[in-house]
Structure to design on (456 residues):
């Protein structure tokens, strides 16, 4: 007899370089804990970031910018992502890299403005008449095709909805039947139908149908309370860029849902300033009426030294806008020439007039014990077992080269251990992979020693 294990259908999340970051790791007084929420060390930088988070939450940070500056592999991107975690999912966070502005399709300033608008959210509250309940009946009524032929068409659909308080039978338009099919609605599902637009939203399966044999693929929701027909406040979160893109080539209605349905495009469309100004007027009107609320988010620009003098000049104007997000820059450069110029040297490759507007947070190189803690944390995140001796050896390598290189050696060392028939990483596995690969410093040393053997 063959016995097979039924595996869960829940998608496993891919482990990225910063999957372990859960927040800034500060206590209630705002002081950094030595190791918390995935971050180790960098106490001063984390405490400074905590003050920035408090300023953003109290809405006293509008039109300002922060610069995270420090050597490579000192946790600048990690701190920026920790700020995003502290702010929560409702605050838009738009990460980009400086080199993204050099697009072959649209202007540099357009790429920058697009990301600015992505980082500004709009929370729209609409009171709608809805029919909500568990589907108890779903019967399409067919008639002969008026165009002739053998096929039949759906003239209307009879749907029964029940709640804890009562039930109703509705006769719906065939277009709503199409929407029900798209949402894959079946008897036993909890849905709501908007009375005005006919939009259908499946909220999940009624928890009365939940059994212990389910594979966790289905989301179960309780039976709705109250009447089937009710007025419901629907909250929708969109960004200003979503509204820009939806109106660049208008098709269909002008409500938020139809705008959201128009976002898939084959080619990027350059959005004019005139269109953005018109959208800003409509947004201002919604805010004045109390329908919408502006949620300024965070735009994170990594490798800011990759921007050129023209883009930096454009940033001044964008930062002074009435609806500007909070901008966080990050760079690992010291004094260097500003891109787009031949001879203008500036700290971090950023013009002095822009630097003057920034709050600068400095990150410092990690000590050996901190590198060891970070490596232990990464091994745990990736589900790897590592001996203490191997961890110390890897921390020593990270101190001599870079933390990034040491983290990258973890997975090859794990594969080497498995090849040698061991479940955990040992010192010899770390030494073996370190002899096979080179870090940037070792490679540069070989290049300078054997420069006559390489092409110029």
């Amino acid at each position: 007899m063959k016995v097979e294990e039924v595996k869960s259908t829940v998608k496993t999340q891919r482990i990225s370089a910063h999957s372990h970051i859960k927040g800034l790791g500060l206590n209630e007084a705002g002081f950094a804990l030595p190791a918390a929420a995935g971050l180790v060390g960098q106490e001063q930088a984390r405490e400074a970031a905590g003050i920035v988070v408090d300023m953003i939450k109290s809405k006293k940070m509008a039109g300002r910018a922060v610069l995270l500056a420090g050597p490579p592999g000192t946790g600048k991107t990690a701190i920026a992502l920790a700020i995003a975690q502290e702010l929560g999912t409702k605050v838009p966070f738009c990460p980009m890299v400086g080199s993204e502005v050099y697009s072959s399709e649209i202007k540099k300033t357009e790429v920058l403005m697009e990301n600015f608008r992505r980082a500004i959210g709009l929370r729209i509250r609409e009171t709608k008449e809805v029919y909500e309940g568990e589907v108890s009946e779903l019967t399409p009524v067919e008639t002969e095709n008026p165009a002739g032929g053998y096929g039949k068409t759906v003239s209307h659909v009879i749907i029964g909805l029940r709640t804890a308080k009562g039930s109703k039978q509705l006769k719906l338009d065939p277009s709503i039947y199409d929407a029900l099919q798209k949402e894959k609605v079946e008897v036993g599902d909890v849905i709501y139908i908007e009375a005005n637009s006919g939009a259908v939203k499946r909220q999940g399966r009624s928890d009365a149908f939940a059994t212990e044999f389910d594979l966790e693929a289905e989301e179960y929701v309780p039976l709705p309370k109250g009447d089937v027909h009710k007025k419901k406040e629907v909250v929708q979160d969109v960004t200003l860029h979503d509204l820009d893109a939806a109106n660049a080539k208008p098709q269909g209605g002008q409500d938020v849902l139809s705008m959201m349905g128009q976002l898939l495009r084959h080619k990027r469309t350059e959005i004019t300033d005139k269109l953005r100004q018109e959208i800003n007027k409509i947004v201002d009107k919604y805010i004045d009426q109390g329908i919408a609320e502006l949620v300024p988010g965070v735009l994170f620009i990594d490798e800011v030294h990759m921007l050129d003098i023209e883009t930096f000049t454009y940033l001044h104007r964008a930062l002074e806008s009435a609806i500007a997000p909070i901008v966080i820059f990050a760079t690992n450069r010291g004094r260097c020439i500003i891109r787009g110029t031949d001879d203008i040297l500036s700290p971090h490759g950023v013009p002095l007039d822009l630097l003057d507007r920034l709050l600068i947070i400095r990150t410092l190189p990690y000590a050996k014990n901190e590198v060891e803690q970070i490596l232990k944390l990464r091994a745990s995140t990736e589900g790897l077992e590592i001996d203490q001796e191997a961890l110390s050896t890897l921390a020593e390598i990270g101190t001599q080269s870079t933390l990034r290189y040491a983290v990258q050696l973890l997975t090859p060392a794990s594969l080497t251990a498995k090849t040698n028939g061991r479940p955990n990483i040992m010192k010899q596995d770390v030494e073996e992979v370190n002899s096979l690969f080179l870090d940037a410093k070792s490679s540069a040393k070989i290049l300078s020693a054997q420069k006559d053997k390489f092409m110029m």
